[in-house]
Amino acid sequence: MNELKIPNHIGVIADGNRRWAREKGLKAIDGHKAGVENIERLFIYMIDRGVKVVSAYVFSTENYKRSEEEVKYLMDMAVKKFKQFAKKYNDENIRVVFSGKREGLRDDILEAMEVVTEKTKNNTRGTINFCFNYDGNEEIVDATKKIYDDVNKGLLNINDLNREIFAKYLYQELPPVDLVIRTSGEMRTSSFMLWEAAYSELYFCQKYFPDFKEPEFEQALIEYNKRDRRFGGN
Question: pLDDT tens digit string along 148-158?
Answer without folding.
Answer: 999 999 999 99
